[in-house]
Amino acid sequence: MNNKIILPLVLVVLIVGIVGIYFWKTPTQPTTPPNLQNIILLPSVKGCAETDKGMATKAFGEGTEQEPKIEVSGNEIIYSRAINHLCCRKAEIEKETKDSVINIYEVWSGIGCKCICFSEIEAKLQNVPLGTYVVNVYEKGTQPGNEGPMEQKLIISQNVVVQ
Fold first, then answer.
1. Does residue 133 fall inside a structural domain?
2. Is the pTM here over 0.85, yes or no?
3. Of 34, 97, 110, 143, which one has the fewest beta carbons inside 10 Å?
4. Looking at the domain assignment, is residue 83 inside a domain?
5. Per-residue DSSP letters for 28-88?
6. Torsion angle (degrees, nearest 10) of CA 83, 87, 89, 95
7. What are the φ/ψ torsions at residue 155 (nearest 5 degrees)?
8. Where are the alpha helices (DSSP H) in the chain?
């Protein structure tokens, strides 16, 4: 073969080989999830399900229910709902974070009395890093009456963007 053809062919093979080795050897940087350890939970339970010193307040009467909703305001994520429920039940709010998933739990306890009362529940998450998250809110705890565990139930799930 002609040297004029072989030399450019060898150069092309060398360049492709060097570029291939570079990209093969260069590790890709994994995307690290945002640091969710610094998120602050500010729970608020108002009405019959308040948990002052672990005691449920017995209050009669129904209120206007509000569907569960999740909103973003600055670097805060706010979950809220208002519900009618059995008296003598209390609710506490917990959170759990992993990668870009934020789980909020309404944890219900108490025997439950034969009346209906009203509560407003809110979980405000402050100091949320910029990013896109899946926010799930679950209801769990103990069954009224027998105090056995209640089946965990998804109340709302929503994708949110904190900018």
1. yes
2. no
3. 143
4. yes
5. PPPPPPP--TT-EEEEEEEETT--BTTB----------EEEEEEEETTEEEEEEEEEEESS
6. 10
7. -90, -45
8. 3-25
Calpha distance 29→134 (Å, rounded): 23
Q: Is residue 24 part of a domain?
A: no
Q: Could you read off the pLDDT of 54-84 as tens digits, one per residue?
A: 444 555 578 899 999 999 999 999 999 999 9
* Residue 15 domain flag: no
Cα separation values, 30 from 9, 27, 36, 134, Å: 37, 9, 17, 20
User: Which whole-number Å values give the CA distances from 8 to 20, 21, 70, in the listed order?
Assistant: 18, 20, 63
CA 5 and chain centroid, separation? 63
Taking the C-alpha atoms of residue 44 and residue 42, their distance in angstroms, rounded to an integer, is 7
**Domains in the chain: how many in total?**
1
Burial class of residue 157 (count of CB atoms within 10 Å of its CB; 0-12, 13-18, 19+):
middle
CB atoms within 10 A of CB 49: 27
Give the structural domain span for 127.
40-162
pLDDT given for residue 147 in this prediction:
80
